[in-house]
Amino acid sequence: MLRVLIQKIRKENQPMNTVIFKTEDAIFQFDQESVMECLEHRKTLYEIKELDPLLDVITNEPEKVILFLEGQKYFGFIALDLINDGEGSVLCKTCSKQYPSNQLETFTVGPDDASIKTLTGKKKGLKGLFRKRPKPFGMYGGKGYKCPEGHELIFMRTWIT
């Protein structure tokens, strides 16, 4: 319902604020309403009170461009959610080209079966049958996006052990 209302507002050509997220590799651009919707959803779903200051800034900002730098603790996850939903666009700093988010290539990082076996180690002989299996150490995984030229734009760790 809210998305339909946002689309209706866009069709009426009313000016919309833009939220810009800069990283070392890219500059992401999203419309204010999409960002607010995503922040509200994450705040409700995960009960993250640290999102309140972000919501306040975005809601009360009178200017056309709102700038968030890489140091914002949660905004990288918001950017991933918005890109995943096909929102916004990104300027790849490496190839100096602007891409809509639906043209970006997704990639994941994390252990597969082979790396888990390498981390835990194989047991050999009779002694190996009676030992405890060591826990994998320091594993993590995440999600990221690359431009169509293959340059990494954003990556966030989404889980860790």
The N- to C-terminal Cα distance equals: 38 Å
- Based on helices, strands and strand pairing, what is the structural class? alpha+beta
- Regions with pLDDT < 50 over 5+ consecutive residues? 1-14, 113-125
Please bin the fraction of helical residues.
25-40%
Beta content: 25-35%
Instruction: Tell me the count of domains.
Output: 1
Quaternary assembly: single chain
The strand order across the widest sheet is 3-1-2-4-5
Q: Mean pLDDT across all residues, rounded?
A: 75
What general outline do the C-alpha atoms trace? globular
| Record field, number of beta strands | 8
Q: Provide the gyration radius in Å.
A: 20 Å
Largest sheet: 5 strands, mixed
Q: What is the count of DSSP helices, taking H or I runs of 4+ residues?
A: 6
Order of helices and strands: HEEHHEHEEEHHEE
Describe the structure.
- This protein has one domain.
- It has a five-stranded mixed beta sheet.
- With 161 residues, the chain is an alpha+beta fold.
- Helix 2 (32-46) packs antiparallel against helix 3 (52-60).
- It is globular and about 40 Å long.
- It contains six helices and eight strands; from the N terminus they run H-E-E-H-H-E-H-E-E-E-H-H-E-E.
List the helices and strands and how they pair.
Blueprint: H1 2-11, E1 18-22, E2 26-31, H2 32-46, H3 52-60, E3 65-68, H4 75-84, E4 89-92, E5 97-100, E6 105-109, H5 113-120, H6 125-130, E7 140-146, E8 152-160
Parallel strand pairs: 1-3
Antiparallel strand pairs: 1-2, 2-4, 4-5, 6-7, 7-8
Helix pairs in contact: 2-3, 2-4
